[in-house]
């Protein structure tokens, strides 16, 4: 009988981590979930551990007896150089010492082409993974629907929505992204694997208009001119992978479900 795979998820409290935990359990993994502040309540299914990749707190304990790591810890709104670059380097060193068989690194489509500092840090983290002696897999996904939703929620109350309407993105349901990432959570490293994208490439104008229709908030959407190479990259669709439409849930379908469950609460 093949022994169960023991899998550590970093960033286990995050958007992706929350989607990965139940799927890993369902797939028969022994799941260790890491957070800087693990929940104190008992969780009979998942073993929670404390981990801070910034200073290495809990790294050795988190990696003990682990076969596979899904590294989803990240600081998109914080010090991503410290967390994503140096934290990943620290994790890799410890994973090497612990003889981990596969570190699955979750990255973002376009990190090598969009000159955004968070993306540059993700690319440096990818390189650290690729150059490490630890066997690894690098999987890039497009933006999650929930990420787009959160951004639109921040403008929703403003009387006029000034948005970079021509930006092109390809959002995906996080559960569908997690399903795709789960395929690589095996003892066999796969190297750089095909991108994971949502069903459609959409402009921000289209996404915002669908949000406006679904929420019934009547606001004009106007184009916010954004100069520079980062904006140009988003306009030209650099952060999309139209040949890799892995997800099937459209933005409108996801939005409908999200608003319905909010109304039931
Ligand atoms: N969001 C998207 O649209 C998207 C799209 C494609 C790819 N990705 C990638 O997918 C991964 C997960 O994204 P996400 O949206 O799930 O991120 P998220 O919701 O922001 O969660 C990030 C997680 O990182 C943990 N974390 C932050 N600093 C840490 C530290 N110093 N040490 C240990 N853990 C730390 C946080 O856990 P605690 O606070 O509990 O410690 C949190 O659970 C990221 O690498 C991201 O680049 C995201």
From TrEMBL:
One matching Pfam family: NAD_binding_10
Q: What is this protein called?
A: NAD(P)H-binding protein
Residue spans crossing the bilayer:
none
MF GO annotations = protein-containing complex binding
The residue ranges of the NAD(P)-binding domain are 11-144
């Amino acid at each position: 009988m093949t022994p169960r795979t023991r899998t550590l998820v970093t960033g286990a409290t995050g958007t992706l981590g929350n989607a990965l935990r139940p799927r890993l359990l369902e797939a028969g993994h022994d799941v260790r979930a890491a957070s800087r502040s693990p929940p104190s309540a008992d969780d009979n299914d998942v073993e929670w551990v404390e981990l801070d990749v910034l200073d290495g707190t809990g790294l050795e304990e988190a990696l003990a007896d682990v076969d596979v790591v899904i590294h989803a810890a990240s600081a998109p709104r914080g010090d991503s150089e410290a967390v994503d670059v140096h934290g990943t380097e620290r994790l890799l060193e410890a994973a090497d010492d612990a003889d981990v068989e596969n570190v699955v690194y979750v990255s973002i489509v376009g990190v090598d082409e969009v000159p955004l500092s968070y993306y540059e840090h993700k690319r440096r983290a990818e390189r650290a993974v690729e150059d490490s002696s630890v066997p690894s897999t690098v999987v890039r996904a497009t933006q999650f629907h929930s990420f787009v939703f959160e951004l639109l929620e921040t403008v929703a109350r403003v009387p006029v929505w000034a948005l970079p309407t021509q930006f092109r993105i390809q959002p995906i349901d996080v559960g569908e992204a997690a399903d795709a990432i789960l395929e690589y959570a095996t003892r066999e490293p796969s190297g750089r694997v095909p991108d994971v994208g949502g069903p459609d490439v959409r402009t921000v104008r289209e996404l915002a208009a669908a949000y406006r229709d679904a929420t019934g908030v009547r606001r004009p959407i106007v184009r916010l001119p954004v100069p520079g190479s980062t904006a140009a990259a988003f306009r030209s669709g650099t952060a999309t992978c139209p040949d890799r439409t892995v997800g099937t849930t459209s933005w409108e379908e996801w939005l409908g479900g999200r608003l319905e469950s909010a109304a039931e609460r």
